[in-house]
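Recap slide: PH domain-containing protein, sequence and predicted structure.
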Amino acid sequence: MKTYKSVKGSGVYSILGITAAYDILLTIILYMVGYYEISTLIKITMIVFNIYQLYYMIISCSLTYSIDNQNIYVNSALGLKNIVIPFSEIQGYQKANGYIKGVRLSGYGNSKFAIGRSIIDKIGSTYMFVTSTKNILYLRTEDINYGLSPENFDKFEEQLNEKCINQLIWNYKINKNVNLYKDKKFFVPFVIVAIIVTIITVTPIILYLYNKLPSMMPLNFNPQFVAIKFGTAKQFAFKHMFYGILNMAILFCMYYAAYFCAKYDRKSAYKFIYIPLILSMMFFIMQVRILLTFR
């Protein structure tokens, strides 16, 4: 098996710089904000954001491509990436250099590097493992293309030719038959979010109508979950109903974003449903905590 390192580019430094900038900004906002709901949201955002950034930093600095008699392997440290591309599925390849022209669907990247799924100009839906624009190799398969940037580019290409894989020009088509409601990986989380949002919206109203809420309820909290503003039960109920409506609006926005994304790459569409899932869970937990504390 022959292993090729990826060409070292500016990707890691770009990710590191963005991480530092956003962490500083979010930390400043966190210390300026005096409300429990917003500070909780910022803390969760920072945790998820830094895990996301670290994931792509590790991949960017440790990406390798290996070739044996049957497959091409794309690997990274800690097993974060372990992609197998059988030679039997590769129809051909294209070469490119210079800025990457396309739209990122998932992952990380800009015009100089890309890790994740993108729509590349004249190539189509592509799983990108490109750390430099010096030499890019696009591999064509039936389901998706792959973008690689190996060192010793000529030797890598020579090994492809030895496997009877040659340069090829192809066209791509947009998938017009998008039925996300038939996809369990998308539909099940969608239903879960819809149920959670309904509970967030309806529960305080029902409790208010049946006089199950105290006459005075907390409306705002400091980051230590100490009530700093009280209002009537009616104000509390309508405030949390607004939270539910807000979550429902986010759910539908993410649905249409996923629908658009699925036209190009279905797997990239799944991430959009997890944004409202995380948000709705956060608001649901906060609501339960408030109701249990101030019942």
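The helical segments are 11-32, 36-62, 153-162, 184-209, 233-262, 266-269, 271-293.
The two ends are 66 Å apart (CA to CA).
(End of recap.)
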